[in-house]
Amino acid sequence: MAIREIRKDGDEILHKKCREVEVIDEKIKELGQDMLDTMYKYDGIGLAASQVGMLKRIIVYDISYIEEDGKKEGHILINPKITSRSKNMIEVEEGCLSYPDIYENVLRHEKVTVEYTDINGKRKKIYAKDIEAVVLQHEIDHLDGIVFLDRLSEQK
Ligand code: NI
Asked: How many angstroms is it from 80 CA to the middle of ligand 1?
């Protein structure tokens, strides 16, 4: 387990596009686990690889805090892609570990379908709604160099 340094506001890497992961080797598995550990350490619910300085299409998230039992359920998604989006939008207040102390309402699709490769190389699908859908959209945006504050100007 290793905690990685989180890149913050002003770091150019946050605005760069991440590259597809071609081979899931030990380094990629370690990066995924470190990202989860880093996210938990700073009480985040999602993190993208560019936020720890790696331009790779990997995100992690865990929204189990909203469940009663509070059991951790960390997900590592490699090469995630949104394959469908609901027409219906929801507005939720978002924050980001790279922008501490900034919280803004962002419009997101209420439901999304995300395809990804898991840590064992298996292609999988998630049908997400509400908070899970919001987190996935926020993190996948990071992989394209888009941060939540970029979405604000679009809305106005
Ligand atoms: Ni973020």
From this structure: 15
- CATH classification of the domain holding 110: 3.90.45.10
Instruction: Tell me, in angstroms, the distance from the centre of ligand 1 to residue 27's CA.
Output: 23
Catalytic residue list contains 104: no
Instruction: Domain count for the chain, please give it.
Output: 1
User: Cα(56) to centroid of ligand 1, in Å?
Assistant: 15
Whether residue 63 lies inside any domain: the answer is: yes
Would you say the pTM of this structure is higher than 0.90? yes
3-state secondary structure of 76: strand
Which residue among the candidates 22, 26, 139, 154 is catalytic per the annotation?
139
CA distance 114 to 54: 21
> pLDDT per residue over 49-90, tens digit each?
999 999 999 999 999 877 666 678 999 999 999 999 999 999
